[in-house]
Each structure stands twice: as C-alpha cells, then as structure tokens.
Amino acid sequence: MTLLRVFIAVETPLPIRQAIFVQTESLRGALGDLVRWAPVENMHLTLKFIGDVSPANVELLSQMLTAETMGCAPFRMQIGGLGSFPTSRRARVIWVGIQAPAALASLQRGIQSAAARLGYEPETRPFSPHLTIGRVRQQVRA
After folding, report:
1. Are 105 and 111 in contact (CB under 8 A)?
2. Which of 28, 45, 48, 71 sits CB 3.0–4.6 Å from 8 for a disulfide?
3. Please, are residues 80 and 98 in contact by the beta-carbon 8 Å criterion?
C-alpha cells in the first residue's frame, strides 16, 4: 500500500515567499551548501505534521479539515524575524518567524484537537509559527 507523507499547512502568498527569498540572499550566500535551502514554491506555515497516511485516511483528514475550518475567518500574518531550531548553537532548521494573530493560534489548536480525535498524536511542543527556509545538513565534506 502506498502511504502519503501528510501535513496540514497554510499556504503563504507567492509575493511573500519571493520577498523572503530575496531578503535572505546574503544568508544563503554565506552558508551555501551547509544548508539544504527550501525552494520558494515549498515554503508554507505548518499547522500540524501528520506523517505517513493511507489514501483512505487522507479522505478522513480532508473531511475533518473541511469541518474544522468552515467558520475560520481570513486573517493577516506578519513576518517576524529569523531564527533556528532547536537553538542557534545547534541549528538544524533555519526559519523566518510569523507573528501569529489569535485566529491563527485558534485554528492550529482546533486542527490539533480534531486530528487527535482521529487518532493522530498531538504535538507536545508549543506552536511556533514559522516558514522553514533551510535545513542544516548532517555532514558537509569540503
């Protein structure tokens, strides 16, 4: 059976992603191949990582998302700085932060709760809205 790697995300408008790409050009130049940089078309705001899911369960997730987001009003997000996970000294992920309005945090909690009702493990880490722009490589050979 084919499994699909699934996550629930907010798509960021292309002009925002392009602006982030331009603004981080010097960082990409300085770090080069030490980082696997995210293509502009892949930048998104993850609300819930699900993992490997069967096609049948993707349909259940889709129905859950439709129900959960039905009353969600549009909201604005602001870009809020540059950072890394887990720490700056042991960076594995390089990100651009999002200043989250209450509506975004509420949407994320609702999706987390609905996914848990379908049997998916809840995230134990606090929600930290961001766009991943790169992942630090394990080993780089000169």
Report:
1. no
2. 48
3. yes
CB 136 within 8 A of CB 92: yes
Report if pTM > 0.90.
Answer: no
In this predicted model, what pLDDT tens digit does every residue of 43-84 receive, in sequence order? 999 999 999 999 999 999 999 999 989 988 888 999 989 999
Q: Which of 86, 8, 84 is nearest to 47 (CA)?
A: 8
CATH code at 4-136: 3.90.1140.10
Could you list the beta-strand ranges (E) of 44-92. Answer: 44-53, 78-85
Separation CA 123–CA 50 (nearest Å): 10
Task: Pick left, alpha or beta for residue 119 (phi over 0 → left; psi -120 to 50 → alpha; otherwise beta).
Answer: left
Q: Are 22 and 43 in contact (CB under 8 A)?
A: no
User: What does the chain come to in residues?
Assistant: 142
Give the 3-state secondary structure of residue 52. strand
